[in-house]
Amino acid sequence: MTYGLMLLALVLVALTLRQPLIVLLLGACAFMHFAWGKGHFDYIIEDMWVSLDKEMILAIPLFMLCGGLMTRGSTAKRLIRIAASLTCQIPGGLGVSCILASMVFSAISGSSVVTMLAIGSVMYPAMLDAGYGKKFALGAVLAGGSLGVVLPPAIPLIIFGLVTEASIVDLFIAGLLPGLLLVGLFSGYSMWTNRHLKTTPFNWLEFKSAMRSGVFALAMPVLLLGGIYSGYFTTVESAAIALLYAIVVEIYVHKEVKFGDLEQVVVNAAKMAGSLFPLLAIALSLSLVLTEQRIPEQMVHLMQSWFSGPVSFMIAVNALLLVVSCLMTTTEALLILGPLLTPVAMAYGYDKVFFGIIMIHNLEIGYLLPPLGLNLLIGMTAFKEKLGTLTAAAIPFIALMIVGLALIIWQPWIAMYLVNGKF
Q1: Which of 101, 162, 196, 260 could bridge to 83 as Cys pair (CB 3.0-4.6 Å)?
Q2: HSE-CB for 334 with a 13 A CA cutoff
Q3: Contact (CB, 8 A) for 321 and 363
Q4: Residues 292-317 as b or e (16 or more Cβ within 10 Å = b)
């Protein structure tokens, strides 16, 4: 008990001093090794090495490279053209095309920010020119980017699988229908809000031209996800094949990227991976200590004494995660809370994969919530708007995401139907 209070005090001091997450995690990990690990600090290095010695981790930098390469090329513009040619005849069609293009691009890049920047740089000015309100246009771009958090192969899904030892393939499959649910809600809102705008007739020639131009871009998510879901590729193999495909398409087919550009793509991916992997190594080391000391089991007993049933537990967890999503990035929240909350959720009868989708969906909303919503912060620079303006634009989409979250919790089959093999 004394050590637990000391650990809590250490964390509070680190937060008060505004220390970065890596300092907080490393301090907590060192303290736990000192208090409960017989004082062998060299075990931290050993645990970090063992934690990162996993083949699945290779998928993260490969998907980062793939997303960076596709962003540098013309994939986003080609996807937008296809989506726009399909939706031009429906009310709010350009907004729907923004959501559809974001859906497909997020399935390629696996990143919320990359999707928002790639699609938003084209769609935001296009929607303004077409007469869409600035508030809606900003909200659609911000919310479309957030789809990259839950739609496979989203990197948060991989991180949750690593820290909780859940099946990453099952997480990918479980994220598909919830992601499509959000796409439907966002598209319906676009059609309703912009129903007064003029539409244009469907142009078959434009559609054929758009398909010819973007067929290789459109084939990427089919290759990527089809290989994983069919069992022909593992997650890492799929990431490697996707990267190879992106190189061939962007350099030799689209000819939008030159070999000299690859250096900058690799440097950018290395910077992102360099900030993520130390956090991941320390968090996984901390998770090993927590497991050895049976901390999750103690949390299960503690939480069961607080909450009488799974419903009250789920309400409390959702409230907690929504608050946490305002203060931490998705990666930070998954690294810290994933190993702690997942065993408790399983004790209440929730499937590990299902709880992962609920947790990530909650944190997905955090991309649009101040003060640390990542899409808001990046959007301030990308679209030259104030935080208050972006927050106001995101509110209707936040409400839709909460509705989607409530539907998934109420009807768990939305996430688990495909996982259970009922194709």
Answers
A1: 101
A2: 30
A3: yes
A4: eeebbeebbeebeeebeeeeebbeeb
Residue 233, sorted as left (phi over 0), alpha (psi -120 to 50) or beta, turns out to be: beta
**Which of 109, 156, 147 lies closest to 337 in space, CA to CA?**
156
Q: Are 420 and 173 in contact (CB under 8 A)?
A: no
Establish whether the linkage from the previous residue to 371 is cis, with ω within 30° of 0: yes
Sequential pLDDT tens for the chain (423 residues): 455 556 656 666 665 666 666 666 677 767 766 666 555 656 666 666 666 666 677 777 887 788 778 777 777 788 888 888 888 888 888 899 999 888 888 877 767 777 888 888 888 888 888 889 999 999 999 998 888 788 887 888 888 988 888 888 899 889 999 999 999 999 999 999 988 888 888 888 888 998 888 888 888 777 777 777 777 777 788 888 888 888 888 888 888 888 778 888 888 778 777 766 776 676 666 666 666 666 656 655 666 667 677 888 888 888 888 877 776 677 777 877 888 788 888 888 899 999 999 999 988 888 888 766 777 877 887 788 888 888 899 999 999 999 999 999 999 999 998 888 644
Determine the Cα–Cα distance for residues 66 and 63; give it in Å rounded to an integer.
5
Distances (CA, A) of 5 to 31, 178, 215, 231, 410: 12, 39, 59, 47, 37
Q: What count of other Cβ atoms lies within 10 Å of the Cβ of residue 256? A: 17
- Amino acid at residue number 214: G
